[in-house]
User: Fold this.
Amino acid sequence: MKRIIYISAVCLLTVLSSCSSVLDEAPSGKISIEEVFRDNDMTMNYLNTCYSSINAKGCLYFFWSRGPVNWCDDAWDADDQDVNWAASRRYYDGNASASDFPANYNAGDSGNESVSWTRSFQRIRNCAVFLQHIPTANVTSESDRARWTAEAHVLRAYYYSELLMWFGCSLPIIREPYTLDADFAKVERSSFHDVVEFVIEDCDAALACDDLPWRITTDSEAMRMTKAVAWAIKSRMTLFAASPLYNEGNNYWEEAYSVNKAAVQALESNGYALYDKLNQTAVWGDEKAYLPNKESQYLNEYFCNSGAYAADPADKETIYQLREGANSNLCNVDAPGAILAYKTGTCPSQELVDAFETINGEPVLDLSKPYLDEQHLKPNYNASNTLYSKEDPYANRDPRFYATIYYNGSKRYCGWGTDAGSISFENLGQGQGLMTRTITTWDAYKNSDGTVINTPEPLMGRSLLGRTPTRTGYFQRKFLHPNSGKNMIGLPGPRHKDYRLAEIYLNFAEAAMESGHEAEAITYVNKVRTRAGMPGLSSGLSGDVLRQRIHNERRVELALEGNRYFDVRRWHKPDEDLSATDRWITGAHITHYFKADGSHGYIYERTILKERQCYTNKWLKMPIPLTEVNNMRAITGEDWQNPGW
Amino acid sequence: MMNKNIFAAAALLLLGASIQQVMAQDITVAGTVRDIYGNPLPGVIVSSNHKDLYITDKNGQYTAKVNKSGELEFSLLGFKPTSVKASSQMEVTLEDDAHNLAENVNIGLSKQSREVLSDAVSTAHSKDLGRSLMTRLQGTFSGMFSGLTTMESTFEPAYESLNMYVRGYSTFHGGIASVVIDGILYDSFAHDILYRISPEEIESVSILKDGASQAIYGVKGADGLIVINTKRGTPGKLKVGVNISETVQVPTTRIHSFDSYTFANLRNQAAVNDGLGEYHIFSKEAVEGFKDGGSDLYPNTNWYDMLVRDFSNQQRIALDATGGNENVRFYSNFNVLRQGSFWNADQTAYKADNEKYRINFRSNVDVKINNYISLWANLAGSIVRAHTPGGAVDCNGTLYSIITGMPSFIYGPVTPAVYDNDGNVIEAGGEVVTTPNINFSPYGFLNRTGYNNEMNTNIYGQAGLKFDLSFLTPGLWAGVSVGYLSYINSITSNTQDYARYIREDDWSDLRFTHYGTTINTNLTYSKGAALYGYFSYKGEAGWQRDFGRHHLNANAYMTYQVFDNLAGGATYDFRRVYSGAELAYDFDKRYAVKLSTGYSGSDYFPRKTRFVWTPGVSAAWIASNEGFVKENVPWLSLLKVRGSYAVTGNDATGFDRYAYKDQVNSTAGGKIPYLEYYTNESVYGNPNLEPEKIYKTNVGIDLGIANQFQVSFDVFKEKLNNGVIKSTSKVPLYQGIPLGAYPITNMGEFENKGWELSVSYRKRFNSDFGLFLAGHLDYSKNKVIYVGETAYNDTYAYRYRTEGYPVGQSWGYLTDYSNGNGLYNFQDEIEAGPKYSFGTPRLGDIKYKDLNGDGVIDEKDMAPLGNGSLPKYNFAFNVGFNLKNFEVNLLFQGLGGYKRNYSELFTFQSAYDGVFTESHKSAWTAEKWLNDEEIGFPALSTTATTNLQTNDYLLKDASFLRLKTAEISYKMPKKVCDFLNASAFKVYLSGQNLFTIDGMKTNDTPVEGTCSAFPVYRMYRLGINLTF
Assistant:
């Protein structure tokens, strides 16, 4: 009897003790985060994850849009009609809320085509996890460990800088990843400036690392972080922190000045220099590139090419270039729509055109008050500019104008996928194929008897309908290879240059000017102007006049690169709005006329486009996602939302 | 002595030999068992010391061998059990038992006497279930059990399906009950199995409702259990039963179809409302042409009459046989069902309509190998052979819905032949007619899509050994068994497609053109299959012994189960370990207590927390068995107070399979090629995840008067405090883990409360007349307390959508009836009303309430509609009587406290070429409004309108009361039986769903189901029951 009980008990225990493991998951290849850092390659893979949400930018905002370029007064998006969910159209209509904001339209939060609070913070966590584990990770090479650590620091700084630029608000600083039992009620947000300090701290940690390179030299490492990027982030972020929108009444200009000065020196002494030489003469130097002078030639060449990765590259100006190219699609999505008849995309505004000085260095408009009316229909011309002609407004302009914008009467040689219509007087009778065509953006013509026919030029004329016409009378050319088109679409589009030395110079110039180092400010603005073939600012400028010139220089030099959206915002105080710049955007209403003798000319007038709604105070900052705000209210009782949303 | 016995048992087991150990003291007893009116009682179980010995034959006679000093117990459902000291000749009289105290309630692991049972368990027996006309076991449950809500979801004859909920929901996951078949537990997936078991095979079904009865089932207990026991052999002479029936099935409602004149007018009216002008869709000539039944050019095709038969037939033949001796017993069943077609097909090349055969068989065998070891084996299976049109395996549902979509103005079903002037055929015609908007034809679907042959085989096999360990201590036994349950479905299809022809625009001629890319194709062969299987290994032990007035019943079991589902995709098999034990004790049938516990685990949880103890206790005081009650209040035939409290478990949380584990892997395609892969963290595991525990309390009272009248009342409460949720409302996005991957936690709270009332009256007045009345009314109400929902801000009329509401709460806009009819009747009213964020209302559209008063109707104005996905009330009423050889039985069943949204009518009108039902006839028009005519529907439209937003306009009370089954039977007199050499011969006529009372007010929307699906059907059955 006893034995039976014994045996039974032993059997039962055996069965019971085997139960637990019998219910384990069969080996499935799943690993834990700890195991990742036990392996050199998987650790490296994790660093790659930290890179995974760097936005593509350029013309790769959702649905091949140039994003913030079109959402500010640089340009108008031709996708504002046919596609009612297009982010630009929603900006213009003011159709946005915290739960559905157009810049985050592709809200799947998986791609890199939209601005995302969530994704940025996910990567910030990845960086923090990486930094937490990397000291003890099984990494075979110590120099790898050092370099990877430095990269994670720069990456975290980069994601924070993006959050600061878009959301512009206090943020929690995440040095270490939150544990699953973290008490979020106790988390405090740090002010904009404190977050910038943290960004600098991360950048400095990276700069202290000997194994972090200054420059990437092979294509497979493209987009990896460098010391130069760390300096660029510091440069931009200190400038932002000092700007009126974010400084919370404090004066951080001196800090911005010294950081930027150090940045300029460090970059210059480590091989970074402005691009000032034509390399591909056969393309950009050719008359069929239709670039009038050498500066416009090499500047267009610079923006139309991706910088090569080499120890001593031709392009020494680009500090950080994103990996996704605008690819060969660019002439189909962000160019005169008539090339391939798909869509036009970015239409530079009349305001941007007005900003380009004449070649003698005089602004076209009085920068202290460029327009006499709020709708920008009455320009306040600069009285001392004698070179500008209202009848021939595109003559004698800054070389950068010709490298940046296709305007009425400019010419383009490429493969055209469209026939010229019967009233395309300039290009009459032209079929499809490789040829030079005149860019014709007129939207009316006047017969010799004086009758005005309000019919846009059928190929490229300005119209408010459709996706291929320009809305403003101008097309983007800054990034467009001079000859890409039908049968030539393989011509590469450029990768977006997220940071380049000219911006750092202008950051420095602005910080120097604001902090009273005006002579240094002028020196560095003039470096940029000289490269562009423009006369320098006179050394006597100061105060508001100098500020206006520096602001305008940024606008012109960085045109269509996405900086303007943030610049106009940071230059405002938190209680102001953007009505002076972003409410009314104008275009050129051009009438083609015939004289009795058969010759012809153009009449240039200004025309307003639909009033934009995205200028009010709340549009200074992007709203924090509604879910986050709701959650934070539930956790802390505080309202985290940016004003107005 | 004992050691020797063990040795002997082991040796015998090895040798497989059989030894008859004849006890010297045994005597043989024989006699007759009768009721109080002197009628012999067949089927009485004669047992001794909890061992069944014999069952009385048709003459009520028995013989049994029993220990000279032993007692014999006589029990039969409906009669009071009687114990008599053994003597060689015993005539026994059994008294009626209106309170069913003699019932041996099968609670899965053991059987407990109803008299001392302290758990809340509802039961039904084969006789009651067999009265239902439903062919699937599950179908017979409606109205049978207090505490079990049944809701039919599809109604096709022999394809009907049913959702079952034991006391509503026990968790916010909305789980459904698990099933125990002959002692083996299956998860809710096994409801599928119930469709393939025939009611004939079943001995009894018990519904375990309270925690104390569910506790031993651990992580599968919380949603309640349906315990099914199949019939086993009874010793005695071979007994053969034959049951043959013929059934006619008729839909209770028919799809609504208007003649083409009415249809065209409604369609034109819709176009007028949309601002498209008069006679926009049908010209004036066409409308005139449709008048008075139309013509060839202006057709009025009645697709329903063309394709649907008035009724379909069903035949069943069931054979069962049982018998055996004290060493071998068996029960065998063989059962064939044929379900005929509802469709009129005219395809000659192959059989186009549907037909279904189901064959069920079962053989349950018990073999006593020797005094210590017996073997039992159940082998059962079902084979379903279904022939359906090629368009869909589920042909009835699909075909029904597409008949709905086919309006009468379409010429059909096929194009006419075209002749030249000499009468020669130019085109043969015969092509299937449809329209560009519809692109299908029910005629084409039925006749031109080929056919499917479905073969569906299910095997349920169980076998085990039972060891009698009485030599250790009397009443002790142990057993081991294995169970296998499999489902294999294979469909062989020979399908074809057909060319679509549409009529040309010119109504004055009958000309057709080929439309679209489809052509008439030849039959194409294809094949598909699905399978799943459960493998179970079980060990169990029990000890049942009486010590004088102390009665003890202890049982324990352990099961390891693997469930493999091929259709489950790339997931691993599901594995669970269940074990449990219970100890029931009563003193003198006055004080009863039962302790139980489960200890179970599933692979959903991490090692350290995957096993959970689920203890429970229940107790009862049977006051009516107290001497002082018997003496002082003799009319009080039953007074029992019961209570239970237990923990039950649940592992079905609906989240990732291994949610306790991180899921990290390296994936190709990182941003930096040099860094190669990137790391994908898709799930962040919660290493502390544990099974959910639901605490259940039940208090009940049973009151019986004069052994005739009984009232039972139960109150219950169920509370879940560690519900598994993905609570991210307190988790900010900035912490960096994607909320979708964030760990799930045991933080949810849920509550379910209710009560059940049962009343019955049962009396046999004399041997010719007995009356039986019974009814139950159940109420349950659940509430989600906490699931970590993020509150909306205060601009929302309701800040929560889930918390504070029952499971399945739906949300939508409320109709503003302040103007009388809830619709916009004139333009100023629209302009004065709130702006709609989803479009602009037209005249005659629903006027929504601006609940938050912000002048805009948007999601902030949504309000709760109805009260969740389950009805609050579940009720049934059963009345029966027998008069001489006649017996009548009626079962009424219903649901209450339940609303359903019949909003499909809003989308119907703009679907295809427009689909109209009776309701659409009363749609708003300016004319009707001005004339003060009755308006019952918003203005018709040809397209989507603001009425399509979820709203309460068609939210209707879906309560109903239905005469579920009615049966009248006649027992042939003994003369007839004897002539046939039969022991019993019964003829019966029964009906199902004979009438329904509901508050729908229209005929076009069935109270259950939808108007485009197969409707509830009525059945009439004529059958005979012969026993030899």
Summary: Residues 96 and 417 of chain A are 37 Å apart (CA to CA).
